[in-house]
Amino acid sequence: MKYIIEHMEPELSEWCYAEYQNISKIVGKNNLIFTNTNETKLKTLGTVKNQSVTQLNLKKACLLDPSAKETLKPQDKNKFDYLIFGGILGDYPRKKRTEPLAKQLKIPTRNIGHKQMSTDNAVLTAFIIISSTPLQKIKFKDKLTIPIQKGEEVILPYRYILINGQPFISQKIINYLKHNPL
User: Fold this and answer.
1) CATH number of 2-136
2) Kind of pairing, strands 152-163 and 61-64?
3) DSSP readout, 159-180?
4) What is the pLDDT of residue 125?
5) Quick one: CA dihedral 145, 138, 94, 59, positive or negative?
6) Would you list the domain boundaries of the chain?
7) Which of 59, 99, 88, 60 is nearest to 76 (CA)?
8) Distance CA 152, CA 79 (A)
9) What's the half-sphere exposure (Cβ side, CA atoms, 13 Å) at 3?
10) What residue ranges in 27-119 does DSSP mark as E strands?
11) What is the pLDDT of residues 28-77, one digit of tens each?
């Protein structure tokens, strides 16, 4: 399975790069493709393509979209060669920025639940599903509170997968938040 991140931000922020590093560790550099960017820094994490995923004419591809009616299932690993994610630093509430991509691609869509996740959590969730665990058996934590300093915290209103009871979030992102509170 190849995992495609359609980079949809005007630049590559420190936060976004930390998520992309996580994704590369999850799926492996050889299984990761970044589209819609010419950011050379990403070449250490996966393949980089200037073109949008809409220009690649991919066969057996699926777009992950929280608005999709059908949920990704382990059996989908036999239907698709590519899973496409929008690399969007989330707005809350979400602005449904994946919709235009879905209309252009005209390929099957799947959800991994209807709650918004960071891109690395979305990829990890899809990876676990494709590796044979149905969505309903994966544990999540909604909203994450990050202590910044005494009496100060940042609440991230997204869904995070739990691994050994701990939310999956990069230490780089936690450090970023401590030095650049929202």
Assistant:
1) 3.40.1280.10
2) unpaired
3) EEEEETTEE---HHHHHHHHHS
4) 98
5) positive
6) 2-136
7) 60
8) 47
9) 27
10) 32-35, 47-48, 61-64, 82-87, 109-110
11) 999 999 999 999 999 999 999 999 999 999 999 999 988 899 999 999 99
